[in-house]
Write a structure and sequence with these properties.
Strands 8-7-6-5-4-3-10-9 form an eight-stranded parallel beta sheet. The protein starts with a strand and ends with a helix. The chain is about 40% helix and about 15% strand. With about 280 residues, the protein is an alpha/beta fold. The protein has one domain: TIM Barrel, CATH 3.20.20. Helix 2 links the parallel strand 4 and strand 5.
């Protein structure tokens, strides 16, 4: 399986890791660590050395209860970093945003992938992606970040998320964005309670029927606190376990804060998956 980007193609026959680079003061894990351009560049370089295939740059927190950021502030955070990364490092840069104007400016600065928690739901977002021939990660979220974790409700979470993502893939195709440029993300923790997250992880292979690569973001999620009673600083082991489960179930890209440990888990799970596929009749 492959993902078509504006100027290259990412081979996903082996699962890959997307490294998280938050340029925000209030992200739940690394808020404030990389607000300085040099610190952000150093972290991007370190994640690439640890095996990340994509650097996902974000300038607005999407944690539960997060406060919205103005367009000007988000642009001021992300554009200088994207420009420096593209100037100094040979890598795929993703822009994590919901705003079409940020998508447009980031792609003009060199971002090749749009990672949107609203699945290009904003007016003009689809047009921006088409104009830049960008790859896009379409994510499911129930509600919006400030309120999404206040009693989310589903009849069948897997079926409902699957139907939403299928509809967004169809909308992209109708707008002229080729399926070869699309990823889907079921959105763990975005408007889902612990039982919903566990159901999605248990039935992750259902999303493979959408026919596009699958990205998962499970890194240090609050679900591990709810399930295991672990504080944020101690959530790496279950994050690694969940990443391995996801890859064994068919995930193509794992989004992570802890790149080196995640790469090791992803490579092991990918090798096991490949061995299972080779043995299948």
């Amino acid at each position: 399986m492959f993902l078509k980007l504006p100027n290259r193609t990412l081979d996903l026959r082996q699962p890959q890791v997307m490294g998280v680079l938050n340029l925000t003061p209030d992200s739940f894990f690394d808020g404030g660590r990389y607000s300085n351009i040099d610190a952000a560049l150093t972290q991007a370089r370190a994640m690439l050395a640890e095996g990340a295939a994509i650097i996902d740059v974000g300038g607005e927190s999407s944690r539960p209860g997060a406060v919205a950021v103005s367009l000007d502030e988000e642009l001021a955070r992300v554009l200088p970093v994207i420009e420096r990364i593209k100037h100094e490092l040979d890598c795929i840069v993703s822009i994590d945003t919901t705003k079409p104007a940020v998508m447009d400016a980031a792609c003009s600065a060199g971002a090749e992938l749009i990672n949107d928690i609203t699945a290009l739901g904003a007016d003009g977002a689809l047009a921006v992606a088409c104009r830049h021939s960008a790859a896009v990660c379409l994510m499911h979220m129930q509600g919006e970040p400030r309120m999404m974790q206040q009693q989310p409700q589903y009849g069948d979470v897997v079926a409902e998320v699957h139907a939403f993502l299928a509809a967004r893939i169809a909308a992209c195709a109708a707008a002229g964005l080729a399926r070869e440029r699309l990823l889907v993300d079921p959105g763990f923790g975005f408007g889902k309670a612990l039982p919903h997250n566990l159901q999605m992880l248990a039935h992750l292979d259902r999303f493979l029927t959408l026919g596009v690569p699958l990205l998962v973001g499970l890194s240090r999620k609050s679900m591990f606190s709810q399930l295991l009673g672990l504080p944020l600083a101690e959530r790496l082991p279950p994050s690694i376990a969940a990443a391995a489960i996801a890859v064994r179930s068919g995930a193509n890209i794992v989004r992570a804060h802890d790149v080196a440990a995640t790469v090791a888990a992803v490579r092991l799970a990918g090798a096991v998956r490949q061995a299972a596929e080779a043995r299948a009749p």
